[in-house]
Design goal:
With 144 residues, the protein is mainly β. It has a domain at 25-116: Deoxyuridine triphosphatase (dUTPase) (Deoxyuridine 5'-Triphosphate Nucleotidohydrolase, Chain A, Distorted Sandwich), CATH 2.70.40. It is built from one helix and eleven strands. It catalyses: dUTP + H2O = dUMP + diphosphate + H(+). GO terms for molecular function: dUTP diphosphatase activity; magnesium ion binding.
């Protein structure tokens, strides 16, 4: 599938690192570094604008290494870029560590997965079909 993209950043287009990768890394496109203090958040611009086909979304997700090693994650994970959005892709990052974290220009800050989705129509009913689980919620299927 081809997706139209405008790259106003100083960096190459996002790409798949391996043949089996689901996501492509997004890079910070900033004129000066941004320091995020513990529990603070920042919107970091990428310089990318795209036109997704209707029926698709771009999901902006954390990079596992950045989250595990530094405590930096995507606040509204996954963030959704809708097919009708034409603005610059920004990433809402939050610092969940106890130390300041500085983002530099060109740093890989998140990953983006393109995903197909469906639109549904609601059918209001009085009763739902029974299942073994029923109304069992969080943790109701066991520990192992």
């Amino acid at each position: 599938m081809k997706v139209k993209i405008i790259n106003k950043s100083m960096h190459n287009l996002p790409h798949y690192e391996t043949e089996a990768s689901a996501g492509m890394d997004l890079r910070a496109n900033i004129s000066e570094s941004i320091t995020i203090k513990p529990l603070e958040r920042a919107i970091v611009k990428t310089g990318l604008f795209m036109e997704l086909p209707v029926g698709y979304e771009a999901q902006v997700r954390p990079r596992s290494g950045l989250a595990a090693k530094k405590g930096i994650t995507v606040l509204n994970s996954p963030g959704t870029v809708d097919a009708d959005y034409r603005g610059e892709i920004g990433v809402i990052l939050v610092n969940l560590s106890n130390e300041d974290y500085t983002i530099e220009n060109g740093e890989r800050i998140a990953q983006m997965v393109i995903s197909k989705h469906e639109h549904i129509s609601w059918e209001e009913v009085e009763v739902l079909e029974e299942t073994t689980r029923g109304a069992g919620g969080f943790g109701s299927t066991g520990h192992k």
